[in-house]
Design brief:
This protein has 251 residues and is α/β, with parallel strands linked by helices. 48% of the residues lie in helices and 15% in strands. It has a single domain (3-243), classed as NAD(P)-binding Rossmann-like Domain (Rossmann fold, 3-Layer(aba) Sandwich), CATH 3.40.50.720. The chain is globular, with a radius of gyration of 17 Å.
Amino acid sequence: MARALITGATAGIGAEFARQLAARGDDLVLVARDSARLNDAASHLSERYNVGVDVIVADLFTDEGRSAVETRVASSVTPIDVLVNNAGFGLSGEFEVNTVEQEQQMIDLMVAVPMRLTHAALGQMLPRRSGTIINIASVAGFLPRGTYGAAKAWVISFSRSANLSYRRRGVTVTAVAPGFVRTEFHQRMNVHTTNIPGPMWLSAQHLVRVALRDVARGRAVSVPSARYKVMMAVCRMLPARVLAAGTLRPR
């Protein structure tokens, strides 16, 4: 029986990873800031799927929160077999409008945290020659999309490199790069999404199902939609000024 740790586990993509991993019989360690929501999710998953569910209430913006999760991921006593680096957020303003502290927080959460947790996980996975690391990226990582796209580009490049280095040693590392997903992500960003055509939206359920299939195949990058795979192929031929158009607008 495997044990999976998921950051940002109470909503959206993280919650769906928790559900599908529990459904296949994995025990869970759920990480989030909201203790009430976290405990509700743990109780529901444990009762519905009859799996063990532990929680870590941690604010990954803080040294204390990051340290608590790193320590758990690094433990070889009850080791984590599957690490899902999902926690993240977006900013609705342009780079020069956002404060540098906001930009730093975003980079810390989407670059530094996955890097640190991956390093911690490898410390106990490589000696066992077994483990799976899933880093949630975005198709924005293939496009000129400000610091958000740059952070996701780092996740994609890092995951590709890590998969090349560690797959032969029993540990796979996969970047999952979805497009628009129907979660509360954009609502939290406070941006309009009415200009996004219906076919561009993915369900979290479909995304995670396809992602887990790609992970099982050892792929370094998973783009869980045929339409987005075609779009990314087309984007490689377009000039940057075209790719940069169509950003989301604040409410």
